[in-house]
Amino acid sequence: MVTMTMVVGLTGGIASGKSTVSAMLKDLGYSVIDADVESRLAVEKGEPAYKEIVDYFGEGLLQEDESIDRQKLGAIIFNNKEERSKLNSIVHPAVRKRMNDQKAAAIERDEQLVILDIPLLFESKLTHMTDRTVLVYVDENIQLARLMKRNQFSEEEATARIKSQMPLDDKRQLADHIIDNNGTIEKTRIQLQNLLQSWKIV
Ligand SMILES: CC(C)(COP(=O)(O)OP(=O)(O)OC[C@H]1O[C@@H](n2cnc3c(N)ncnc32)[C@H](O)[C@@H]1O)[C@@H](O)C(=O)NCCC(=O)NCCS
Ligand SMILES: Nc1ncnc2c1ncn2[C@@H]1O[C@H](COP(=O)(O)OP(=O)(O)OP(=O)(O)O)[C@@H](O)[C@H]1O
């Protein structure tokens, strides 16, 4: 029997709870393709994007083992729109290719549901890669507090990262479904289960 694979784009903002929701989906056995993981792999030494980054940003960006110092690169790009666009133009095509290849493999396996976890789904206009979109939403004050706590960021560092993305309130208008992650993890889990049930997936 041939199953139609449903491709869901899972998005949110930095520290809004995407990984928390994607971990629940993985526990249920679904394939989750994570843009952050793929963007790490795409800039490993030997990859074309690695060379482009070093050529543009300079060797000062490298650690002793010649891998890219992500903290240093983050400090540059989250405080400068032009440098961020430059990095995006180097990394995003490689990430898109990696994700599309994995999506095709999941469809080939006749999987019922595959999830693309993409923080910049709306900013990068990638909804065409998905059948429907789910936004993991939190209020900005909670997002700021969770980000500062998780990454040990100052308020200034955390705010720079949040401001580098489309506001979650604007993403609300674009998403097909919203999971409100302001409450407890259990409340979030129930919303996810209801969503899967509404899709007749579980
Ligand atoms: C700047 C880098 C080196 C910082 O690495 P670091 O390990 O500290 O963070 P990580 O990659 O885990 O990203 C954490 C979160 O930051 C946000 N973020 C990352 N890159 C960007 C960006 N270019 N614009 C806006 N937000 C971003 C996302 O919400 C992401 O979930 C890294 O994020 C990067 O290479 N970014 C460019 C690629 C990219 O856009 N990745 C996001 C998904 S494709
Ligand atoms: N409902 C919740 N209640 C309390 N803490 C939460 C809740 N959801 C997530 N968190 C915590 O908030 C932080 C951010 O969550 P998570 O890592 O899932 O976000 P994310 O959207 O995947 O972030 P990023 O895009 O930056 O990787 C984590 O430390 C997580 O443990």
TrEMBL record:
Coiled-coil portions: none
Signal peptide region: none
Record: residues binding ATP: 15-20
Keyword Kinase part of the UniProt annotation: yes
One of the Pfam families matching this protein, by short name: CoaE
EC number: 2.7.1.24
Catalytic activity of the protein: 3'-dephospho-CoA + ATP = ADP + CoA + H(+)
Record key words, sorted: ATP-binding, Coenzyme A biosynthesis, Cytoplasm, Kinase, Nucleotide-binding, Transferase
GO molecular function, one term: dephospho-CoA kinase activity
Subcellular location: Cytoplasm
CDD domains assigned to the protein according to its UniProt record, in alphabetical order: DPCK (cd02022)
InterPro entries: Depp_CoAkinase, P-loop_NTPase
Pathway named in the protein's UniProt entry: Cofactor biosynthesis; coenzyme A biosynthesis; CoA from (R)-pantothenate: step 5/5
HAMAP family the UniProt entry points to: Dephospho_CoA_kinase
Family statement: Belongs to the CoaE family.
Function in brief: Catalyzes the phosphorylation of the 3'-hydroxyl group of dephosphocoenzyme A to form coenzyme A.
The protein's name in its UniProt record: Dephospho-CoA kinase
Species of provenance: Cytobacillus purgationiresistens
